[in-house]
Specification:
Blueprint lengths: L10 H6 L14 E2 L11 H13 L13 H15 L8 E4 L2 H12 L5 E6 L3 H9 L3 E6 L8 H5 L6 E7 L11 H14 L2 E5 L25 E6 H5 L7 E4 L2 H14 L5 H13 L1 H26 L4 E6 L2 E5 L6 H12 L1 E2 L1 E2 L9 H4 L1 E5 L5 H12 L10 H4 L2
Parallel strand pairs: 1-11, 3-4, 3-5, 5-6, 6-7
Antiparallel strand pairs: 2-8, 7-8, 9-10, 10-13, 12-13
């Protein structure tokens, strides 16, 4: 068997196939809440900076350092040190071809075939896919109340082959922001067992809280345990340029360099130039983007009562996502294609974020609302509210499962 045969098809691509043969009209266009990537182009100043670099900087078209441009690594280190109240050096930062590649590189430095990694469920499906393709066993950690993972339950899952625990906060797909003390508890657990804690903070720029979301970088020895991942795609709309970051110990980054040199040689130069310009010039603009996302999150809550009367439940909301429990007897993966045909809504079922056979996955949908404004969210809820009579309604306790 091939390594890829151990995994499943990319969920977003699979969901797009549900659109085939379905006609949408001007008075009821498709509402696509299946993917979190922003569809708007970067702001003009950033595009001009990249265009100028393309015309005037020879190195923008050449191979660069495997771990990224020195100026961008230094900027990340300086801004992260200030934001988190800790000490982060440029040598702690690697720039990667997107945050997914940062995750893959981190796992390459940690795991051999047959090792284990603990993933809270519902999980980010690309994390699960990569573990499957590399022969690493995924150990599910079902979320508790509020979609929060429990460190004590995680402790019971650690074995001699456990190499890491992975957290995504703000969470994809659940949207919840993990409390600082919860993240610290997982850090302490990982350090106690001498395993890594990988914290994917792709959506950190849209956290509703002010100040640092955790205090891990304030620990003088943070890099003996913590591996932080980040994406510039969401902050600066650089999705097509593939720029992410991995923050860890210099020794681990030296190991990651071996992996990165084989899969991309170096990150996209123009993307890195754009990311640096964004970090240095777009703080106020990014604050406005955050405010807009927080308003869309509020719009989800504002519109939820009319769905709640039909038995829907909002399990989590934050960053780009809302996680909804539906009231129907049919499973979410059966209902999702019907939503396209009957309601003009493309969304992902919870089965794409949970282990096969997990009943929780059948009860939920992920709504990625980053590209739907407040008016669009109201229309989305109109359509969900009108999606009645599909299957038979469940008892309230079944929806809560």
């Amino acid at each position: 068997m091939s390594r890829t045969s151990h995994s499943f098809a990319p969920p977003v691509m699979a969901a797009r196939r549900w659109l085939e043969g379905v006609q949408f009209t001007p008075d009821r266009p498709l509402i696509n809440v299946s993917q979190a990537a922003p569809v708007d182009i970067p702001p003009e100043g950033l595009r001009r900076a990249m265009a100028e670099a393309a015309m005037t900087q020879a190195d923008a078209h050449l191979y660069g350092a495997v771990l990224g441009r020195d100026d961008l690594r230094a900027e990340v280190a300086a801004q992260w040190s200030m934001a988190y109240g800790g000490t982060i050096d440029a040598a702690n930062v690697a720039i990667t071809s997107g945050c997914n590649q940062a995750f893959c590189a981190a796992l390459a430095t940690l795991c051999d075939e047959g090792d284990e990694v603990i993933l809270p469920t519902p999980w980010y499906f690309n994390h699960k896919m990569w573990l499957d393709m590399t022969g690493v066993r995924t150990v599910p950690l079902p979320a508790e109340a509020g979609l929060l993972p429990d460190p004590q339950r995680a402790a019971s899952l650690i074995t001699p082959r456990t190499r890491a625990i992975v957290l995504v906060t703000p969470n994809n797909p659940g949207g919840v922001e993990y409390p600082s003390d919860l993240v610290r508890a997982f850090f302490d657990l990982a350090r106690k067992h001498r395993i890594a804690l990988i914290v994917d903070e792709t959506y950190r720029d849209f956290d509703a809280r002010s100040g640092a979301p955790h205090d891990l970088f304030a620990d003088p020895d943070w890099d003996d345990t913590l591996i932080q991942l980040y994406s510039f795609s969401k902050a600066y709309r650089l999705t097509g340029h593939r720029v992410g970051a991995m923050v860890s110990s210099p020794a681990r980054l030296a190991e990651a360099e071996k992996f990165l040199d084989c899969v991309a040689i170096c990150p996209n130069q123009l993307g890195q130039i754009g990311a640096l310009w964004g970090m240095q010039n777009l703080a106020q603009w990014l604050a406005g983007e955050r405010a807009e996302i927080l308003d869309r999150r509020a719009a989800i809550a504002d519109n939820m009562p009319r769905l709640a009367t039909q038995g829907w439940q909002l399990k989590g909301a934050g960053a780009y996502f809302a996680y909804l429990a539906h009231p129907f007897a049919d499973a979410s993966d059966v209902l999702a294609p019907r939503l396209v045909r009957d309601a003009g809504v493309l969304t992902l079922p919870g089965t794409m974020f949970t282990p096969t056979g997990d009943a929780s996955g059948t009860r939920h949908f992920r709504i990625a609302f980053a590209n739907v404004d407040r008016a669009g969210i109201e229309t989305l809820f109109d359509r969900l509210a009108g999606f009645g009579g599909v299957g038979r309604p469940l008892a309230p306790d079944a929806v809560s499962a």
